[in-house]
Amino acid sequence: MTKVIMVDIERCLACKSCEIACAVAHSQAKVLEEAIAESPKPRKRVTVEAAGEFGVPIQCRHCEAPLCIEICPTGAIQRQSEESPVVVDKDLCIGCKLCMLICPFGVLQIGPEGRAIIKCDMCLERMEEGQEPACVEACPTKALRLVSLQEVTKPKRMAAAKQLVKEIEMKESKNEGK
Amino acid sequence: MKRIVIIGGSAAGMMAAIAAARQNLNAEVTVITQDSMPYRRPAIPALIAGYITRPADAKIFSAGTLAQHNVKLICPAEATNIVPESKIISILSNGKEEKLSYDAMVIATGAYPLIPEISGCDKKGICTFTTYEAAAEIIETAKSANSAVVIGAGFIALEIAEALMHKGLDVYFNVRSRILRKLLEPEVSEFLTKKFEQKGLKMLTGEAISEIGGANSVEYVMHKGKKIDTTLVIMGAGVRPNVALAEKCGIELGTTGAIKVDNFLETSVKDIYVAGDCAESPDLATGRFVYMPVGSVGACAGKIAGANAAGANQKTDGFLRAQADQILGLQIFSIGHSTTTAGELGLKVRVYDLDAPQSAIKNRGADLFDVAKVLTDSDDRIVGAQLVAKKHGSQFAWQLYKAVLETEDRKEFLQRFNSPRMRVAEALVHALKSTVVVETVGAEKALTLADEANRKNTSW
Hints:
A: Alpha-Beta Plaits; two-stranded antiparallel sheet; 35% helix; B: FAD/NAD(P)-binding domain; Enolase-like, domain 1; five-stranded parallel sheet; 31% helix; disordered C terminus
């Protein structure tokens, strides 16, 4: 996966803007005002869970070795390539719910449309148009960000480098003091 | 070119068709089905609840998917006879009889609903729900009904009850013994019964309905001598295999009444394979052949039967029954054997309560799940597991599934399951492996917490 949705739980206010944006993005109209009147009701794929003092938005992790793909008896859950998100082919889903059973993160749900499974698809349609996933765009505090793995590791490397330099400088200043 | 004919257009049949087409790219695969189009049967409760209104909303294995795999569909059509000696099948389509010859065949004729022997079973207003036609009848009858009685014991019967409650009907749920008897331990059933009653489902347990009364259509039912007024009765008391066609052409049946198979899912007649609710399937824990009418098992069996019909030589050691559902706000998981199914096979099991592992997050321990059980065989290896949770039950269910699939030693499993350090580490490893993380801050914090707890040896 080239880009991932990163969650900074310390920034999450649990305002659930991501949930609404997600449901709207997966509605037919794609506009909140019309989406709320649709039948079946548009459903969210991300849930903000309360955990201790934090709110944690949880959606599909798009695992590298997804158990859901492994267990699906009809091959309805699939990914185009190693880089692409894990998606459900509604046409093949028989609604047996085995993936709900096996997913360690509990992010698959029974959808309203004939009980086929629904899950986060990283907003494939939006991404193809060059937009960010709806939840990322909607987050007011930027607790959700679409980042490449580079962007996750880079600040850490920089922090480590700074720390190292700081220690060296401290040592040197001590030596000079002598 | 190998001609493969599949009878039946639901999960098992269609998976067989697709598997056969994938196995042998030159094969000519034809599916014969009685339905006007293949559809998702678990969608029927959603249709009844009104979440969807057209059968087309639940269609499955669409024309596009079939065309992609070069599968031909003849529907609606009925297979009337098979002559295995000359490898010819007769079908009735639009009133016209046709004959097709085949090289290999997969029978996936499914099952029909069992109607229990209750007096007054022929009245109007008594419905089943295995097909769209039956579901349409329920919807029509429910329009004028104030209450309904659902007779049944399985997940789908409960889903129907929930769907009718959603429509505003007073729903009575009748089971002779207890709900989900085959899938859950008595204690778990009892817990669910209590919860469902709180949600407004009226339980009629302990005894079957003794009479369905009324002139031409249903007016009341009798349960334990009490009269309950209703105009709609739904029969969900399980299914029986459709074996008439197979029997007619001399295919052997097993002791369960379903079609007998071997580990290659071939029947007693050469080149005729079978999958799904019409057939027996090998049980993973014992290797014995049992009747397991479950969609996922059917689809898995369909894949093997289809591939073998197309020339593969796939053997199965057995299927693991795993079921999950969400009913009236509770997630229910049942994996592998219960005392009931184990008892039927003469397998001695012990049942253990499973305590919630301590959570990596403070104050979360108590409500992680409501009830959980593991069942072990005489070697203390896990052969079954059950779990009920309000939400996110799957974070434990996948571990239970793994334990049952690998028949893990109970003590080893508990060690893994209960260790907070392990749980966090495992989650981390999983997350790192999946390259999708994510809460770096949170995970680090959790690890530090876990370390501290380990050092102090306190619970958190």
